[in-house]
Amino acid sequence: MTDPAAALAQMLGPKGWLSGEEAEPYRQDWLKRYGIAPLGVARPISTAQVAEIVTLCCDAGMNVVPQGGNTGLCGGAVVERAGGIILSLSRMAAIGEPDAASGSVVVDAGVILSALHDALAPHGLVFPMHLGAEGSARIGGLIGTNAGGSHALRHGVMQDLVLGLEVVLPDGSIWNGLRAVLKDNAGYQLRKLFCGAEGTLGVVTRAVLKLSPAPRQRATALITLGDSAAAVAFGTYLRGEAGEFLTGLEFFCDFGLSLALKHLPGLSFPLESRGDVHVLVELTSSSTRVPLDEILASALEWGMERGLILDGALAMSDAQRAHFWRLREEQPEGQRLEGEQLKHDISVPVGRIAEFIDKGQALCQGILPGVRINPFGHLGDGNIHYNLSPPVGRADFDCKATEIAQALAALATEMNGSFAAEHGLGRAKIALADRNRSPVERDLMARLKHALDPLNTMNPGVIVANPSRKKNFPMNGIS
């Protein structure tokens, strides 16, 4: 048989096949915890080429790992088994003409999120997905991890914003589901099956994305509250008062703020008072007739009268609004610059955010006294990025990282939440999933993987470690 690497090199040419040192930038995950040198990096320019690559690798028994912007935090987009290739869609970055009437656009999976934002701006339309890595994250990766971001409260997560998909399946066949309709109940919702699949069921090559009218006005406020319980209470009132105009409801703690102010030049806190929790609120509307400033000002007054809000300010310019958002968005960077850290991506019902933060604090302090905790994230949907720094004077976590992760995952599970809110499982969280999700649920995932990828060539070792393992229970009489 022809050497697969040589065949790929001949098929793709020097720009489409990278090996050796040229493949090095693709090797490790963003946190530098996973990844070995791939056999090479395939960079196709069309869906047909993707299908050729996958077919060749399937026939040769080679592993294929789809990789977007490689900004994931769970090690799901790098090779972990010798002889595998990385499949990068970075050269497939076409953006179709937006369809204003249907509120949709067809894009290649290699499109960078910020480039999509820029392309839509002249049309008065937006793709309402925003996150810290939008300057490098690609649409295919966002679909693969079912990304959420800061606007999920209003617009939903990625699976809510995907109308249709084109996917190359593990055997090289192509499923064309590029239908730009909201309602399509002709069987299983296949497009959602690939949202969150992290490339284990096939390679997303194109997508029909749902668009929204661009906001024509915004009202943004930064507020300080005494504790997380006060933040939850104010957020509950605000959701009822602002309704569909509430686009952003983000929170960060004072420890995280201190790290950001310490390490990031040009960052300042504009309020006179500091409390345990700070909340960023944003209302938007595509109509200029909605009194957003009045709605937000009235809500802030309500919170102050009840002692929930200690201090606050409305953004009076685009520059001030951008600075408010930067205080929230720089939370991960401020902690990274402080030194070693542990990242946990938790979600709980919104009404239990304060309870989780309090109980999580007690759990972590019991395991490693003095550990410094930085909870921040999405107050509107219950997603808490629960990140830790070592105790003052320590450079590490005293080998307690796994124990802490297991305790927090168990706590989230007990609260009917999730230990993998928006970053996926990847390779990093398979053990947590096996510990905290029922055998029925885990076996369903393994069955799906085995049904679509019986040879286990697509991103093996991600989401389910062994999809062909012996079944744990009979299903409808089939064992």
Could you explain the architecture of this structure?
This protein has 16 helices and 17 strands. With 479 residues, it is an alpha+beta fold. A seven-stranded antiparallel β-sheet has the order 14-11-13-12-16-17-15, sandwiched between helices. It starts with a helix and ends in a 27-residue tail after the last helix.
In short:
By secondary structure, the protein is α+β, with helices and mostly antiparallel strands.
Q: Largest beta sheet: what is the strand line-up?
A: 14-11-13-12-16-17-15
> Largest sheet at a glance?
7 strands, antiparallel
| Termini Cα gap | 37 Å
Structural class: alpha+beta
**Low-confidence spans:** 470-479
Layout of secondary structure:
Blueprint: H1 4-16, E1 17-18, E2 40-42, H2 47-60, E3 64-67, E4 85-88, E5 104-108, H3 113-120, E6 125-126, H4 139-144, H5 152-155, H6 158-161, E7 162-168, E8 174-177, H7 190-193, E9 203-210, E10 212-213, E11 217-225, H8 228-242, E12 246-253, H9 254-263, E13 277-285, H10 292-305, E14 309-314, H11 318-329, H12 331-338, E15 345-347, H13 353-367, E16 372-378, E17 383-389, H14 401-414, H15 430-436, H16 439-452
Parallel strand pairs: 2-4, 3-4
Antiparallel strand pairs: 1-2, 5-9, 6-10, 7-8, 7-9, 11-13, 11-14, 12-13, 12-16, 15-17, 16-17
